[in-house]
Write the structure tokens for this entry.
Amino acid sequence: MQRSDSPVEGPVRPLVLGLGNELAGDDAVGVLVARALREELDGVADVVESAASGLALIEVFAGYERAVVVDSIVTGRNPPGTITEMGLEDVGRVVAPSLHHAGLPELAAVAARLGLGFPSRTRVLAVEVVDPYTFGAGLSAPVADALDELVRRARDQVRRWETEAACTTTPP
Amino acid sequence: MSSEILIDPITRLEGHGRIHIFMNDEGSVDHAYLQIPELRGFEKFAQGRRAEDMPQITSRICGVCPMAHHMAGTKALDDLYHVDPPPAAKKVREIVYDTFMVEDHALHFFFLGGPDFVVGPTAPKAERNILGVIGKVGLEIGKEVIGVRKELRDLMTEAAGKAIHPVFGLPGGISKPISPELRDRFVAGAAHAVEFGKFSLQVFRDVVLSNAEYVDLVTSEAYTHRTYYMGLMDERNRPNFYDGRLRVVDPQGQEFLSFDPKEYLDHVAEHVEPWSYIKFAYLKDVGWNGFTDGPDSGVFAVAPLARLNAADAMSTPIAQEAYEELFSTLGGRPVHYTLATHWARLVELVNAAERMGELAADPEIVSPEVRTIPTETPTEGIGVVEAPRGTLIHHYETDERGLITRANLIVATQNNAARIALSVDKAAKALVHGPDVDEGLLNEVEMAFRAYDPCFGCATHSLPGEMPLIVEIRDLRGELVREIRRD
């Protein structure tokens, strides 16, 4: 994973984290968003793909102040392709039989307890998917249709932060 | 009224399992099982692909243990191309693999199993998590877990290209030797890991063994099955995670089988049940006799406790002491208490750390001779490693161009599946009485399978969000009688 090593003083670049398994049908969507943005956001954000899970992700977030997370979700409550945008505060704390299932709020809590950095500003783009379980299946039609919008929203968020940072750091 | 209790996480995270508990007319448990979803279509997906890509492709199957798949795939390629890697290549593979074992076992004990034992199975739900573990063992230890894991993952990244999706395994060797500088870092990392392992064993003594209630729980009949055990062993029947012969001991601890992993299919078969995607591995030499234990049942176990049970000794001194302490405390080998798997995991953590140190001290490990170029036509290859969760087998067949015609993976959770089924059933029968099940009891049923750390077959990951559980109680006609949400 590449970490910001900006030659100039200033805030650390934001993290764009695409989660998922690129081989497993719709589960690839987060990774594909990251890939679509990698070149474009070069020098602006650290774009990272990961298939890791739960608390293993704590190291990925460490040291960042802002992060956009793109992931697939299966709730059965929304039509496939629906994008839900959330802040950390909107994402319920995971209560699960196994701590494999640690979610972002718990990661943030552990990071805070251990004095590790965790992005204080985290936006989550979660897209409702159809089939994240079939190898080589590619994206289903509704999720493929949502890809451009996911890319746009992730990019826009990074650009907004970039503008904010420019306003606060550029001398008059 | 007969009814079914279904514990169903409705969102997907790292795969999702469901526990079904069927109640009989008397209000006690008739039977219970764990249902595990699977990733579909791997065999078809692999067909026509280049065999040499399989270690990379298979490492992407699983976000939890990519290194295990990468290594099993790489070893299958050695066999497929009929090529023997140079000694330095084998040693580098093994040290990287041991590093992975330490890192993974550390994560499991403190973060995943820890809430059950360090905090306690009956502790309030709000404390039974990693924050509760940190609260109990101290902040510095929490930082140490993160710090050791980071150091080890950095070593893996340096040696294997990437920790998450390693790229260094090739048929006949590895892609690059390790430098003397990196070797020195492995020496330091191993020393750190050994100290961490010793400390972890002390935590287990202080927190678990000194608590009579926990010991009673570990040794209770609800979590006990007298099965066969399997593990990969070196020439002196000591566990080796990277290579060796597969040894099986019977429920008395006597050697039952010892065979070349390539003969796996001669000794292990798979039983199918209509209610589960997963195939239940069993010993052909004994036969399938249903979900039952004892010498007449082919049900066997893999993973840390099974490996220790199948071994005559450990290959390193501190692990040997810990192995002796475990068996003397729990009544001799074999130990049939599923929950002792957590302790066995720590014994293995120390063993892997010490082995890292031995390999790092071997002058040959920095040899530039790390590749034997394959020259023969590929045919069929089998590769086996001990994944953290148990024996993992990759089996490939190709055409003469090296394109995959058939690929079969037998993962640890499949090998353990029948015993896991036994565990869930037995725990539910012992602990659940009537449909008014409280959350603490459900947790104790879940502990029965959590000790195995079953991988739910999915490479899925951490969906950021809540993961409510649903308990459904149904009657025999399938009508919903009651729904309990746990969120």
In short: The longest helix of chain A spans residues 141-169.
